[in-house]
Amino acid sequence: MGTAAAGAMSTQILHHTTSFTSEILSQSEIRLQIFSALRCRLLPSDQLTLKPLNLAVETLENAISTPNASTQSSSLRLAQKLLVSYPETTFSSFLLSLIYSLSNQPTSSSLSLLQVFNLDPSFARSELAPTLFQELFLLHFLPVLQRFDEQRLIILSSLSQNANHDADDYSMCDVSVVVPCSKSLSKMSGDQALGLKELERNYQGVLDENCRAFAKYFKEVIQNSHESRSINPPELVFKLTEKGEVLDYHEDDNIKTKELGLKNGRYNPIWAERESSVEFSSSSKSKSPPFYPQRVSVNILQKQDSKTLTTPPSLISDSETESLSRDNSANSCCFESDAEIEGNNRGEALLESGNSPSRRQKQPIFVDATRSPHYLMADNGNPPGSGKHTPPKDFVCPITSHLFDDPVTLETGQTYERRAIQEWLDRGNSTCPITRQSLHSTQLPKTNYVLKRLIASWLEKNPGPVPHQSENLGDVETDHHEPMVKSVIPATSPNSVISQASMDRTTNELRQAITNLCMSEILNESEKAVLQIERFWKDMNIEPGILAMLSNPPVINGFVEILFNSVDVQVLKATIFLLCELGSRDETVIHTLTRVDSDVERIVALFKEGLEEAVVLIYLLRPSITGLVEMDVVEPLLAVIRGRDEDSIKMCLKPKTASVFLLRQILLSNEENVASSIIDMIVSSKVIEDIVGSLEAEWAVERSAAVSILRRCIQQDGKCRNTVADKAQLAPVLENFMATSDEDRFEIVYFLYELVKLNRRTFNEQILTITRDEGAFSTMHALLVYLQTAPQDHCPIVAGLLLQLDLLVEPRKMSIYREEAIDTLISCLRNSEFPAAQIAAAETIVSLQGRFTTSGKPLARPFLLKRAGLEKNYRKLMRMEQLHSNPGDFDNISVSHFKSDENRLLISQFYWFSILHSLHADAWYQQEEEKAADAWERKMAFVLVSHEFGLVFEALAEGLKSKSAELWSACFVAATWLVYMLGVIPDTGIRGAARVCLLKHFISTFKSSKDIEDRTLSLLSFKSFIHDPEGLRDLTSYMKHILKGLRELRKSSQLAFEIMKLLSEEQDCSADLWNHKELVQLDSAENGEVLSIVSFKDKFFSGHTDGTIKVWAGIGSTLHLVQEIREHTKAITSLFIQQNGERLYSGSLDKTARVWSIGNEVIHCVQVHDMKDQVHNLVVANSISCFIPQGAGVKVHAWNGQSKVLNQNKYVKCLALDHGRLYCGCHDNSIQELDLASGTLSSIQSGSRKLLGKAHPIHALQVHNGLIYSASTPLDGVAVKIWSSTKYNMVGSLPTTSEVRCMTISSDLIYLGCKGGIVEVWDLKKQTRIEILQTGTNGKVLCMTLDPNEEVLVTGTSEGRIQVKKTTYLCFKFQTLIEVESFASTVKAYLLCRHGDGVKKL
């Protein structure tokens, strides 16, 4: 063979072998059956080594099912290494071929598969790959087949003469009765019988030897396809029984394939058909066009002749062949032979007729239902021995009276059909049915291939049709072939054959009904025919021949005509029932129904019109899911699920079951928004309760479908979780776990994992207990096994559920389940190759905290914020949850009840009584739930942090380094929770591990995060470290940044104050170090006095006596003037910015107030208001402004132009506005409170007379944390007094002797701007003076402000100077101060100044 020929042949071999392995890999059922057959063929000595093979099978199955390429590759490499080291067997070679094929190594796969033909050729060609044997080997063995055919004819020559002589003895008058006559085969001479048996054995042996030789040859061709050396095929082996000679045969000899009966390049005399050859090419997916009349659309109908045509049989598809093979081998370890498989695939002849112009043409059916798929021995219409087409008796089984399909010859010499004799033996008989001799063994021998070839030869020589027994169709002659369908009904036994006669009569009636259905133009007759066929179907056992007759396309088209034309509900239900039964048994029915779109649309229309049985047929038709949604079948599906199946007729599938299947397919196949709307319909219509009922369904697949639907409903609408948990029976779901696919297993795990996210901790633990204890197997052990092979993305969910189940026991006890679950979570969290699994692992740890909302969302973050003092978000979330869980309480009360006043009063009283009662009950219930939640949280945190001495902290620290915001957020919450719990659970010495892994991440978040919640959570973690000396030492190294953040958070979180208190010691052993560093001093004397200063973000605005507004930016030493505006004509007495920061308001002595937009870099005036009076001390609240006019009182001006004067008896000096209350400081030293909403006036401090003719006005007012601070002259030694804003009594004072002109207050300090150019700094809480700041001038400090962060103080003086100072707060423990070198000099100077000798002792 040349190089080109060798390459072409190599390509052909690879093509066939690759097609075979691909088909095996795509069909799990066939694959598992082959594995079972291979296990059965292992020798007893090989059983000890079966474990590695089973492990390789399991690894291969996991690789096939996994969607992840890397996981598949690693699994295949593992299985390959295992098999390569294993001794070479048929089983191992076959597994290697599949593994190589899945690994995209076609050459290695082909070599391993050919090795199977070399090791066990009989099994390979008859059971494993008969199709591949025919495609690659059989063509080369034609001379062998011819030689054995000649030998067979020589042996049978004398038998044929005897058969003709005794022809009268071979016929039978009644095929339904067993005639126990002797067969000619049993009358053979001993030499003839032995000769045939020996010929058969020799034939099998020769095939095996040639198979081995050509397998080696094919392997050599593949291995040397690219080399130039010539490769010759091996010589054929002919081992003759009589002489034992070996005859060499070369392919150069001329064999006339036509004489051998070769069609399509193949020949096999064992399974030869009369007129057709069946092609078993697994690689060919095309089918020959159908020769029977098809239902087509109206626009493509063509006129046809009304003649009855004889058509050749259509080829049976590969999928049908495989299906038959699966059916034949379902209940045995080893497969049936290739002869049986090929013999079960026959062509079918269907007749074509013309179309009727009025309606769709009824099509006649030429099928004799009384005959089996084989020829009977004789027909009733033929006299004994007269018909040449009557088969010899030896070709007919004495039990079934049918031609042999799989003959087996017992040790008594009698031959029977395999299925019939097997049933005879299964009934407990141990004797031969004819001879009554006892059988030494009930194990049936191999197929009698010699007899089978004789039958095949007889069929070749007698191609004529057998006359029909029906008188109605007796004149019609047709080349009739019926499809061979493997019957699911047990074969006829000697005890059941007698009933055949009565069946014949019923079958004739059925045949007449079918004729009426297909031929009658009268609708009523067709409807009666349908009802008659339905009764027949329900009353009789359906044989394969009857099933084939009813499955013909003309019959199916007749049923469809009924669906289009009938209006009788009973007839329509019967038609749907029959189509469902036929479609569930024969795939060709489904092909016929789906060939025309209008047929499917009609079935869907009937379903939508209320014929709920049609849903079963819709499911069997497998229509486009998108098309079903577009045809609006979702609501009818939900209606069927909501209904009761008791009202439906008994079908192959319950309508509710089919509806559940379709609903699952719709949810899986459609876009997210479509699926979301469907789930909303399921929940709102309360169909979910009926779907929960499907969890107890008889079929495991229905339970799996229900689990999938419920899991998606729970994920989208968590409120239905309580409904599912209350009504679901989990035992059937748990039983499903071991008997389903990996995909459905994960659905079950995911469903249970989501189900225990209830907002009731006690109920969650009850469900977990049921999950752990119910079921026929150990749920925890099953989950552990599944965890070992689950895909990476599924592992966190499985591990989370397993860990919760394990935690039901004492958490301090060791458990393999717990160790594996936590190890899995940690490994997933650290594996950056699977980001989805990382996020799922982090979110699983967060959810293990055990608190959830009513919608199933974890409450870990809100609950931690509540513990940190930010209760606002938590309370808001709880209010929303209450609204969701307690919608309108009056929903169930009729509107008519409210028409009467008496009824309204009674309902109101009842409503409030029920509310009070439920509140009392809820308080006790919530208390118990909180106890259970706290106990669960402590147990879960303990087992997580105790695992491998805090290994979870390392994994969380790696997650905090991720750039994924989702992963970082989940890890941050999980880390905060576990670190916080270190202060709650017993100390096991792992706080140090947490500190080393996480503290720097918390400090970094606290310093840099702009989210106040993240900073607060970091602060919560500090609380766990601050009690640890080493943790405190680490915190002090970042003290500057921490204290800065603490001051910012003190306004919103009480925890910040507590942390500051913990970081600083008590008053007797601590020192407060405040440092005010001057950054810059600006001179604006050319604009006059600085009368007002306000701040906004990083900008300052100053108002001057010449009417100028200046904008300053760049806080720090780089402060510079951005903009200078002069639109007021006189002095600007006040500037005011509302809290939202959108507008700046300026009041001036020019009797106007202007509104400025300050959102951009440059400000501009947007409104000018004429105030009709000079404006002093302007304050703004929403739609009104308040200012001090030139005369007495306070003027309230609305922006629409209206105004009024309040407190007209007083001359007001200063104003302060807080929550709708206006505080007035007056010239007579009195303080009043004005309620702007009601106009009421309250006095806080009474006025005093002028002393020595000099007034003592209130120069400044500030309201802070419910206290009123007033500043005046120190006549009584107290310039600043502090008042309660609720009780109006004085609660404190600042004993300063300076005359205070302005004041501003921060979270910690009070700044007093005084006459003489100084600023006094006082401690807010201690009310002690800390420091005196100099402005560098002797003028008055007229105004002050702080930036939003309270780090920069800006003052304005009467001399036109603006000074900016940086405020820094340092609070250290003394022992820490010694260790911090960077602050040593500052501390020493400060303490020498303040404490003198105390420092020396220190």
From TrEMBL:
Pfam family, any one: ARM_LIN
Keyword Transferase appears in the UniProt entry: yes
The protein's Enzyme Commission number: 2.3.2.27
UniProt feature, compositional bias: Polar residues: 303-318
WD repeat segments: 1125-1158
Keyword set, alphabetical order: Transferase, Ubl conjugation pathway, WD repeat
Pathway connected to this protein: Protein modification; protein ubiquitination
Matches recorded under SUPFAM superfamilies: ARM repeat (SSF48371), RING/U-box (SSF57850), WD40 repeat-like (SSF50978)
Domain U-box: 390-465
Entry keyword annotation includes Oxidoreductase: no
Region (Disordered): 303-331, 369-392
Enzyme class: transferase
Reactions catalysed: S-ubiquitinyl-[E2 ubiquitin-conjugating enzyme]-L-cysteine + [acceptor protein]-L-lysine = [E2 ubiquitin-conjugating enzyme]-L-cysteine + N(6)-ubiquitinyl-[acceptor protein]-L-lysine
Identification of the protein by name: RING-type E3 ubiquitin transferase
Organism: Hibiscus sabdariffa
Organism lineage: Eukaryota, Viridiplantae, Streptophyta, Embryophyta, Tracheophyta
